[in-house]
Sequence to fold (116 residues):
Amino acid sequence: MMNADLLISVPYTWVLALSGVLLAIGILGVLLRRNAITIFLSLEIMLNSGTLAFAAFAMHFAAIPGMEATALNGQMFIFFIIAIAAAEAAVGLALFIALHRLKGSIDVDRANILRW
Fold:
């Protein structure tokens, strides 16, 4: 059992800075990589950075008296983002399997299935 005196409070600005770093890593991964799975994982990192930002703002608003409802709204957005990420993972992996069966590779440079 943890003692409340031993808990260290992390400022929400640090959490937002970490969210920004994760967003930058995700953007660089999408722009610089050619493997579809790596691009997909970079998109997931970007989605997680948004989730972390919502958590930081929910943590900030929960500390302000009278703003508890706003903090709960941020936490509800987090659950929706998690549900969207799960659906995105299922659809994305199904597309990768279909692309690999059709082209024999999941390299985005070779995936020209929209061309006639």
